Input
Amino acid sequence: MTLERGATRLRPWLDTDIPFLMRLRNDVALQAQLLTQARGSNEAKVRQWLRDRTALPGRMLLVIAESATDAPLGFVQVSDLDPLNRRGELGIGLAHEAQGHGHGGRALALLLEHLRTTRGLRKMSLQVRHDNQQAIRCYERAGFVRCGLLRSHVHIEGAWRDVILMECLLEATG
Ligand SMILES: CC(C)(COP(=O)(O)OP(=O)(O)OC[C@H]1O[C@@H](n2cnc3c(N)ncnc32)[C@H](O)[C@@H]1OP(=O)(O)O)[C@@H](O)C(=O)NCCC(=O)NCCS
Output
């Protein structure tokens, strides 16, 4: 499955993406934005992560790539896919050099449209650090609204951080 809007493509992961994805998995600052820690991933661990995210039921992962070159820029993932209640949990990460060029906004629009029309989902939710203004802005532009606050919820970069809960009713995004 390949989805495309302007300069941004969503597609399944390829073997040639592994070195790039290993760099993201080992990027301490990026993983801290993703509410987790870099774990010293080697190629085998990255492959296992990709298998877990794509082969297990209730999960999906797509690579965000540059349309013109197909070069990988990051990834989007959905977890806790609940077919009964037709909802899931969303995550997104772009390499530093790919941020701030609209890829995140286009990737979210593509993914939400796909989840609504092809997967029949009606709602997505996510967690984001309260100090991650770039991500919050991007999510709001994609149709997410704040629906809760988990105070002092994660210990990242030496401090306890609040986490904002956001949700998006897919019917409302058109
Ligand atoms: C969050 C992320 C996916 C957004 O993708 P992106 O391609 O960088 O974002 P876009 O360029 O589509 O849009 C970002 C928006 O935030 C705005 N923005 C950028 N820096 C900002 C800041 N410091 N404060 C507030 N807004 C900011 C941009 O102006 C833009 O808004 P606009 O479209 O109204 O002009 C990407 O930056 C990323 O992967 N960050 C690191 C990982 C991460 O934080 N993931 C989310 C974890 S929950």
